[in-house]
Amino acid sequence: MTRVLVNLLWLVPGVVGGSEESTTDALRAVADVLDRDGSGGDVDIHLAVLEQFAHAHPDLAERYDLVVADQDGRDKRRRVWAEQTWLAARTRALRPQVVHHAGGVVPFVHPGRTVLTVHDLQPLDLPHNFRPAKRNYIRLMAARSARAADIVTVPSRFTRERVIERLGVAPARVEVVPWWVAPPRNQDTSEPFPLPPTLGGDRFVLYPAITYPHKRHDVLLDAFALVAARHPRLRLVLTGGAAASESAVQSRIRQPDLDGRVLRTGRVPGAQLESLFAAAALVAVPSDYEGFGLPVLEAMVRGVPVVAAAAGSLPEVARPEDLVPAEDVAAWAASIEAVLAESTDARNARIAGGRERAARFGPERTAAALLTAYRRAAADRVPT
Predict the structure, then answer these.
(1) Could you give the C-alpha distances from 324 to 85, 219, 318, in angstroms and in order?
(2) What's the rounded Cα separation, in Å, for the pair 212 and 71?
(3) Do the domain assignments include residue 317?
(4) Alpha carbons 19 and 16: distance in angstroms, whole number
(5) Rounded CA gap, 361 and 111, in Å?
(6) pLDDT band at residue 189, thresholds of 50, 70 and 90?
C-alpha cells in the first residue's frame, strides 16, 4: 500500500482561483477511482488542509482522511511557517511514502519522496505580472522545488516543455496530469441566476478572465469593436478580477466605438457565471499564455461555442478549427462573426464537436495520470 499525503495548506478556499478548482476536481476524480473495484486500491491518500477546507469542500472531507492545521491561511507568513514545521511533523507521524505538494512549492523541510505540481511558469515567463519581491521569491522557490521533487506534474505539454527548459528538470521526471471540468452541479434543478439587467436580452460574447496583460483583452476589445459596428444588439461581457491591465481595459471600453457595448462585471458569484455561460453566444479566450486553458474546457463542457488564441496550451484544449492567431484582430473579428452567423444546425454541430473534444479531458484520465505519478514517486528509483 502506497500512503500519500497531499499538502493543501496553500489552498485558501475562495482565494487561490482556478488552481483550487483544478486541484479539488482532480481529487474528486481520484476518489471515484479509489471507490471503484480495486483499480486504485494500492494507494491510501490523506489531505493536509486548512481548518475551513471541510466546509468549502464537504464531499472531499467525507471521502478522504483530513489532517487539519489549526489556522485559516489568511496570515500568509503563519501558513508558510506551518508548511515548514507543522507539516513536517505530521509527515513524520503519518509516515507516507509520498508527499504531494500541489501548490507549486516544496517546503525546505520535506520528509519522504515528493511529487510537485506546477500549474504554469508565469513568474519566470511573464515577470512583469508580479511585484519584484514576489517575483524573485517564486523564481527562487520554483527552481529549488523542482530540484527537490522526485516527480513534477503539470497540466499540459506546453507547461511540461517550459518546466524542462526553464527549470532544467529531466524529461523523465515530468508527468502531464491534464485538468478536467465537472459539469455544473445541480444544473437541471437549480434556479438560474438572473442575468445583469443592463444586457436587456441582447446576445453577448463572454470572456471570463482577470485583467492581466497576457489575457489580451486589448485584442478582443479591438476585434469586438469591428464586430459591434455591424451588430448593434451584440454586447461583450468581461468577468474576472482587476489586475495590471484594468485601467487600459476601462479606458478602451469608454472609447466611442465601444461606448455602452461592453459590460465589465468584475468577479461574479459562481451561480451568476454559470448563467452567463448558459446564455452566451460564444466564449472568447484571446490569452497568449495559459498553463492549461480552463475557460475553454469550461465552455465546451457547457455546450458553448469557443474562439481561442492559437498560443500557449490552448491548442491542446480547443479544437483546431476554433483557434485564431493570437494577435490578429481582423481574424478575431471574422471568427466571432462566423460563429454569430451560423445556422442552428451548424451551431449544434459546433457544440457537439466541442463536447466531444471536452470528453478527452475526463476524470478517468486525470485520476490515472495522478495515480501513476504517485506510484512512480514511491518507486525506489526515479530518473534524474
Answers:
(1) 48, 11, 11
(2) 30
(3) yes
(4) 6
(5) 33
(6) very low
**Is there a single domain that holds both residue 215 and residue 337?**
yes
- Spell out the alpha helix ranges (H) of the chain: 18-35, 53-56, 58-63, 76-84, 86-94, 122-125, 132-148, 157-167, 217-228, 246-253, 270-279, 294-301, 314-317, 329-340, 344-358, 363-378
71: Cα separation from own chain's centroid: 25
* The pLDDT of residue 33 is above 70: yes
DSSP 178-234: ----PPPTTTTTSPPPPPPGGGTT-EEEEEE----GGG-HHHHHHHHHHHHTT-TTE
Mind listing the pLDDT tens digit for each residue in 122-135? 888 888 877 887 77
Is 113 in the same domain as 98? yes
Predicted local confidence at residue 314, as pLDDT: 97
Q: Are residues 146 and 162 in the same domain?
A: yes
How many domains in the chain?
2
Q: Exposed, middle or buried: residue 6 (CB in 10 Å: 0-12, 13-18, 19+)?
A: buried
**Mean local confidence (pLDDT), 355-375:** 94
pLDDT-derived band at 193 (thresholds 50, 70, 90) equals low
Name residue 169's amino acid: V
* Pairing outcome for strands 306-309 and 323-324: parallel
Q: Are the beta carbons of 33 and 368 closer than 8 angstroms? A: yes
The C-alpha atoms of residue 362 and residue 122 are separated, in whole angstroms, by 26
Residues 6+ apart with CB under 8 A from 67: 5, 46, 47, 48, 49, 90, 94
**pLDDT at residue 185 tops 70:** no
Q: Picking from 198-207, 265-274, 342-351, which range would have the lowest pLDDT averaged per residue?
A: 198-207
Tell me the backbone φ, ψ of residue 280, rounded to 5 degrees. -70, 145
Name residue 332's amino acid. W
Closest CA to 289 of 333, 262, 339, 327: 327
Q: For the domain that residue 239 is a member of, what is the CATH number?
A: 3.40.50.2000
Q: Which helix (H) or strand (E) holds 1?
A: none
Cα 185 to Cα 2, 90, 193, 304, 342: the distances in Å are: 32, 34, 14, 17, 29
